[in-house]
Amino acid sequence: MNQEPIDIIIERAARWARTEADRGARTGRALRQDEISIARSAGVSDVTNIRIIETEHVPFPNDPLLARLCRENGLLGDQTLGLTLDHSIYLKPSVQSDLEVLAHECCHVAQVERLGSLSAFVDQYIRQITVHGYRAAPLELEAYRVGRSILADDRDSGQRTDGFR
Fold first, then answer.
1. How far apart are alpha carbons 112 and 119 in whole angstroms?
2. For an engineered disulfide with 136, which of 108, 129, 132, 164 has Cβ 3.0 to 4.6 Å away?
């Protein structure tokens, strides 16, 4: 991934993620009733602390090292539809009503809960991206699977979604 020791990258990324998660917790809105059921289906235990932040630009690190790594590995940028940091879910307006994207991001919330902290999630996430790449990282594979599963359940129930591919 980079010349910098991975532990330094993880520490800086975790610090940035905590700052953005806290900002989202202060500025975001609570889940609506229909979104609560999606979050629960995605495995989230603490749905009351989830906050949705609608934004044209998902957070991007100012730290030069993290910014470069994100660009080099395609992790965050204009193509990013959503970003979850702890219980804060940043979503572009184009996907606000997309149940598959919401389920994918809620799965990341459930992963944070399961791993015990945002720092532990960031540690695992970066290590997995380093070894497997973004698309094959186990945490991402799980989130994509959960998103597709919930989308399939909603299609079976006749609800409409906007898609996420």
1. 9
2. 132
What distance in Å separates the CA atoms of residue 17 and residue 126, rounded to the nearest whole number? 12
The predicted pLDDT at position 153 comes to 67
For the entire predicted model, the pTM comes to 0.89
- Report pLDDT for 72: 84
Q: Strand, helix or coil at 52? A: strand
How many CA atoms lie within 13 Å of 44's alpha carbon, on the beta-carbon side? 28
Sheet holding 51-54, edge to edge: 29-30, 51-54, 88-91, 82-85
For tokens 């989308």, the residue is 151
Place of tokens 């934004």: 55
CA distances (Å), origin 116, targets 1, 34, 74, 121, 122 = 25, 26, 26, 8, 11
Would you list the domain boundaries of the chain?
6-154
Q: Please check whether residue 22 is in contact with residue 83, taking contact to mean a CB–CB distance below 8 angstroms.
A: no
- When computed from its CA atoms, the radius of gyration of the chain, rounded to whole angstroms, is 15
CA separation for the pair 66, 143 (Å, rounded): 23
Cα→Cα distances 50→9, 17, 36, 101, 158, Å: 26, 15, 9, 15, 26
